Amino acid sequence: MKTVLLAILLISTTAMAQSDSSIHLDDINLDGRIHRRTSMEKMEMKRRKLERRTLKRMYMMMEYRRYQSEMMLMMQTEQAMKMAFNNIGNQ
């Protein structure tokens, strides 16, 4: 009987959570009540989201710089090899 009530409660809270986009399954307490986030929790979530976004951008910039430096090195190596072959051909 207890499990049936718990299942009904879970289904109803899941339906409620899906109907309101601001409520997620993580926001539902074990007793079925919806946990409303405080303004401090919301600010913390926004800060973390911004931090993740910033870290992603930093990582992408690092990857781009590494790619650029590899391309420069390849071009310099190619140029040095051409000069060396030209010098060998001129001798």
SSE blueprint:
Elements: H1 2-19, H2 39-90
Task: Describe the protein's architecture and organization.
The protein has 91 residues and is mostly helical. It has one domain. 77% of the residues lie in helices and 0% in strands. The protein contains two helices and no strands. The protein has helices spanning 2-19, 39-90. It is rod-shaped and about 95 Å long. The protein starts with a helix and ends with a helix.
Question: How many β-strand stretches?
Answer: 0
User: Biggest sheet, in brief?
Assistant: none
| SSE topology string | HH
Instruction: Give me the secondary-structure category.
Output: mainly alpha
Instruction: Give the overall average pLDDT.
Output: 81
Span of the ends, CA to CA: 97 Å
Name the assembly state: single chain
Instruction: Give the count of structural domains.
Output: 1
Write a brief caption for the model.
It is built from two helices and no strands.
List keywords for this structure.
91 residues, mainly alpha
